[in-house]
Amino acid sequence: AQSVTQLDSHVSVSEGTPVLLRCNYSSSYSPSLFWYVQHPNKGLQLLLKYTSAATLVKGINGFEAEFKKSETSFHLTKPSAHMSDAAEYFCVVSDRGSGTYKYIFGTGTRLKVLA
Amino acid sequence: NAGVMQNPRHLVRRRGQEARLRCSPMKGHSHVYWYRQLPEEGLKFMVYLQKENIIDESGMPKERFSAEFPKEGPSILRIQQVVRGDSAAYFCASSPPKLNTEAFFGQGTRLTVV
Lengths: 115, 114
Hints:
Radius of gyration of chain B: 13 Å
Mean pLDDT of chain A: 90
Oligomer: heterodimer
Strand content of chain B: over 45%
């Protein structure tokens, strides 16, 4: 069965410092992995996705994530946080090998950026 | 190509009434998903539909909730006899019929039961 664990429910960083949001997954097959961002009272926007090509994936707004099969991780990073990055971030897994298109969400990490 | 359209954006219902939430997927997308987000929580999968078929409804409550995606028209999530605990944001997403692609989300419908 597919599952996603986001290890931190809240992360606080100072503006200009690096961001690390952690995600571990469990999947029976080769997964597709995604990071979405949700700003307050808004919908969800795709930041980046991994679908078996390069293991280091670059997304929008300077975010990137690295797929590490040996660690079953897909952590999200950004070299320098900006105030506008404050939002909720969701790691998502989709099992493509099983033939299902269901997307499973982690519980989310709320990122706070301090001035 | 318009994005995923959900309406209404906000819906207020009294306890015992019915709530109907609509979702029009992006053009060319035949897969629709519904998720529920309770305050301060993540998104919980409810149901996955293709045209005229429910593929996976493992996240749907057994009673009062139903979903459809007819051949023509939007997908509908229906909640009968709403209770206060149904108050949440309901998000719809759609995707094309292929692997390795992301789901595209609507802005959500915020249901308040009073």
